[in-house]
Amino acid sequence: MKILVVGGGGREHALVWKIAQSPLVKKVYCAPGNPGTAGLAENLPIRADEVGKLLEFAWNEGIDLTVVGPEQPLSLGIVDTFENHDLKIFGPHQQAALIEGSKAFSKDLMRKYNVPTAAYGVFSDIGEAEAFIDRTGLPIVIKADGLAAGKGVIIAQTRQEAVDTVTDMLSGNAFGSAGSRVVIEEFLTGEEASFLAITDGKNIIPLASAQDHKAIFDGDQGPNTGGMGAYSPAPVVTREIHEIAMRDVLRPTVDGMAAEGRPYRGVLYAGLMVKDGKVKTLEFNARFGDPECQPLLMRMKSDIVPLLLAAASGDISGMDIEWHDRAAVCVVMAAEGYPGEYRKGDAISGLADAAKLDDVYVFHAGTAQDGGRCVTNGGRVLGVTAMDDTVEQAIARAYQAASVISWPGVQFRTDIGRKAIGR
């Protein structure tokens, strides 16, 4: 088979890495890819949002399966476009990808189909939003309705901060058109978990549990990012919590999407808040999480390609996923200043030394090739991922690898996975 992976970040590097291991696969292409994928696949000079060019390549090259990494091409309707040309593609259709593309749609769907979630309101008027803030109390969560690269969520601690955030979003200053409507929610407490599943629109196969770390600094302090690290399995997802998530979150959502005439096919990612044996849904994503994808695929023992192909064909019944019993941890190394303004072009040292360590893989997220040097080219630069018998040992192995990689101003959290050890 010839497979095309769309995207150029850490998640896509992990997908290319896993797909390339399949005995079914002859050649992998990645568009646009990065210096990490270049060693495993042929990178293409096509951006992930250039749907027409991607279609032309897949058609001319006879691509057997396209796997979409990021949310943007899904929201642009890449799946619909490819299927209209009889090309197999893994991911939800445009109308189904709205579950991530619009926070308001997602919240309304949860309310309609009794999926547990936080109380909320949807606003495009600042005065009405202020009134809701006053009724709900602080702290309060404010989300841009549209796609904001995982960063369109602000937890406001004061009334002034909440009003300023709403004003900034609705005026288009903060997130452009993504913030032309805002969702305001009650603040939930507890421990977050990432619950991912592959579905064909009817059948659901859950992936192993994982936990992301959104805040930039240790102790979940500072502004939200696209994710500063992740680990799997997540002990907060006990067998009971797993059953609740499948019964009360995944099943009614998949059935609800089908009832709405938007059958959902692909990866469905539910961000959960777990507290006192109860689960509430924070949000849905229409693709693999980044960085959750990295430790999950490292732990996946099964060949991923038959599963992706079956989901793209619309029937995963009778399939299952086998997992390594070991734990995996991903530590994201980021550029100085991220998630705000950050510098690009700094030379990265130590990649070859990290690659020599056993059970360690360094996934590239925001890198570029500059002559013979690998340089920083994004906010989140690398996902240093390691596997070992226990979470504690995997954490130590990941940080051992991270310690040999450096560039000017590198930053990373030092507490990824600590909650797992606490449990």
Automatic annotation (TrEMBL):
<feature type="domain" description="ATP-grasp">
    <location>
        <begin position="107"/>
        <end position="313"/>
    </location>
</feature>
<dbReference type="GO" id="GO:0009113">
    <property type="term" value="P:purine nucleobase biosynthetic process"/>
</dbReference>
<dbReference type="GO" id="GO:0046872">
    <property type="term" value="F:metal ion binding"/>
</dbReference>
<keyword id="KW-0464">Manganese</keyword>
<dbReference type="Pfam" id="PF02843">
    <property type="entry name" value="GARS_C"/>
</dbReference>
<protein>
    <recommendedName>
        <fullName>Phosphoribosylamine--glycine ligase</fullName>
        <ecNumber>6.3.4.13</ecNumber>
    </recommendedName>
</protein>
<dbReference type="InterPro" id="IPR020561">
    <property type="entry name" value="PRibGlycinamid_synth_ATP-grasp"/>
</dbReference>
<dbReference type="InterPro" id="IPR020560">
    <property type="entry name" value="PRibGlycinamide_synth_C-dom"/>
</dbReference>
<keyword id="KW-0436">Ligase</keyword>
<dbReference type="GO" id="GO:0006189">
    <property type="term" value="P:'de novo' IMP biosynthetic process"/>
</dbReference>
<dbReference type="GO" id="GO:0004637">
    <property type="term" value="F:phosphoribosylamine-glycine ligase activity"/>
</dbReference>
<keyword id="KW-0479">Metal-binding</keyword>
<keyword id="KW-0460">Magnesium</keyword>
<keyword id="KW-0547">Nucleotide-binding</keyword>
<dbReference type="GO" id="GO:0005524">
    <property type="term" value="F:ATP binding"/>
</dbReference>
<keyword id="KW-0658">Purine biosynthesis</keyword>
<dbReference type="InterPro" id="IPR020559">
    <property type="entry name" value="PRibGlycinamide_synth_CS"/>
</dbReference>
<dbReference type="InterPro" id="IPR013815">
    <property type="entry name" value="ATP_grasp_subdomain_1"/>
</dbReference>
<dbReference type="InterPro" id="IPR000115">
    <property type="entry name" value="PRibGlycinamide_synth"/>
</dbReference>
<comment type="pathway">
    <text>Purine metabolism; IMP biosynthesis via de novo pathway; N(1)-(5-phospho-D-ribosyl)glycinamide from 5-phospho-alpha-D-ribose 1-diphosphate: step 2/2.</text>
</comment>
<comment type="similarity">
    <text>Belongs to the GARS family.</text>
</comment>
<dbReference type="InterPro" id="IPR011761">
    <property type="entry name" value="ATP-grasp"/>
</dbReference>
<dbReference type="Pfam" id="PF02844">
    <property type="entry name" value="GARS_N"/>
</dbReference>
<dbReference type="InterPro" id="IPR037123">
    <property type="entry name" value="PRibGlycinamide_synth_C_sf"/>
</dbReference>
<dbReference type="InterPro" id="IPR016185">
    <property type="entry name" value="PreATP-grasp_dom_sf"/>
</dbReference>
<dbReference type="Pfam" id="PF01071">
    <property type="entry name" value="GARS_A"/>
</dbReference>
<keyword id="KW-0067">ATP-binding</keyword>
<dbReference type="InterPro" id="IPR020562">
    <property type="entry name" value="PRibGlycinamide_synth_N"/>
</dbReference>
<dbReference type="InterPro" id="IPR011054">
    <property type="entry name" value="Rudment_hybrid_motif"/>
</dbReference>
